[in-house]
């Protein structure tokens, strides 16, 4: 099975240490400097998470444009796309649990790809992401997914610098940060070009401050293992 076939079968790719190690200290500092309480966001945020405004930082933008990241995002979306949103997220001690869910495509299956770029080591103890491989494209006649059923979920773990990319319809969730260790990350959204008008209608609600006019082409990829 090729990397491309596996990506579309599983609905995600985990790029190990994709962020250059020498960037990480600066990225953590940018995250911490951008943290804002819930009442300073256009839409109130969850009380058990720390959120950071950092989408206009040059180094954060460089992470979003890493060639391998753009290659996987382009393969998932399958047409011209743009960078729609970036924000920092970190589960607080005792917080971060989410029920399994899908974020949902907008106009057609696969028109949005998401990425989580980790600035700290992550695992079950500090709230790492859970995913259900292959859940983004249910088979014809398959029962509706039971979001209370964790039997197929996989708890991810890895190192600072890893980047998880996934189809927006993949079932996933955050987990409890039971030990309170830092687990800073940025959540990145890549959207099909056809969604640009609707994107502009909601930039204020999503606190998008960066320039989103740049376009990227799907160019093919190979996942580095």
Model regions low in confidence, pLDDT < 50 over at least 5 residues:
none
User: What integer value in Å does the Rg equal?
Assistant: 17 Å
CATH classification class: Mainly Beta
User: Major sheet: order of its strands?
Assistant: 1-7-4-9-3-2
How much helix is in the residues?
A: 10-25%
Proportion of beta-strand residues:
15-25%
How large is the count of helical segments?
A: 5
How would you spell out the order of helices and strands? HEHEHHEEEEEEEH
What's the CATH superfamily, by name?
Answer: q2cbj1_9rhob like domain
CATH topology name, in short, is Jelly Rolls
Shape: globular
Q: Which structural class do the helices and strands define?
A: alpha+beta
Mean pLDDT: 95
Main sheet overview: 6 strands, antiparallel
Tally of distinct domains = 1
**Between the first and last Cα atoms, what is the distance in angstroms?**
14 Å
């Amino acid at each position: 099975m090729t990397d491309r076939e596996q990506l579309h079968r599983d609905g995600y790719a985990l790029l190990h240490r994709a962020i250059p190690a020498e960037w990480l200290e600066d990225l953590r500092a940018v995250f911490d400097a951008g943290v804002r309480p819930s009442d300073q966001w256009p839409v109130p945020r969850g009380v058990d998470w720390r959120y950071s405004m950092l989408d206009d930082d040059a180094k954060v933008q460089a992470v979003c444009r890493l060639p391998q990241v753009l290659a996987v995002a382009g393969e998932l979306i399958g047409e011209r796309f743009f960078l729609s949103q970036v924000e920092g997220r970190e589960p607080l001690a005792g917080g971060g649990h989410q029920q399994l869910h899908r974020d949902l495509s907008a106009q057609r299956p696969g028109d949005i790809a998401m990425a989580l770029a980790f600035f700290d080591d992550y695992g079950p103890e500090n709230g790492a992401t859970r995913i259900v491989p292959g859940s983004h494209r249910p088979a014809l006649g398959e029962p509706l997914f039971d979001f209370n059923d964790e039997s197929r979920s996989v708890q991810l773990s890895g190192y600072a610098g890893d980047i998880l990319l996934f189809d927006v319809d993949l079932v996933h969730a955050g987990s409890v940060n039971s030990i309170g260790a830092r687990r800073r990350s940025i959540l990145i959204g890549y959207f099909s070009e056809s969604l640009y008008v609707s994107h502009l209608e909601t930039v204020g609600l999503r606190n998008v401050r960066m320039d989103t006019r740049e376009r990227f082409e799907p160019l093919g990829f190979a996942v580095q293992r």
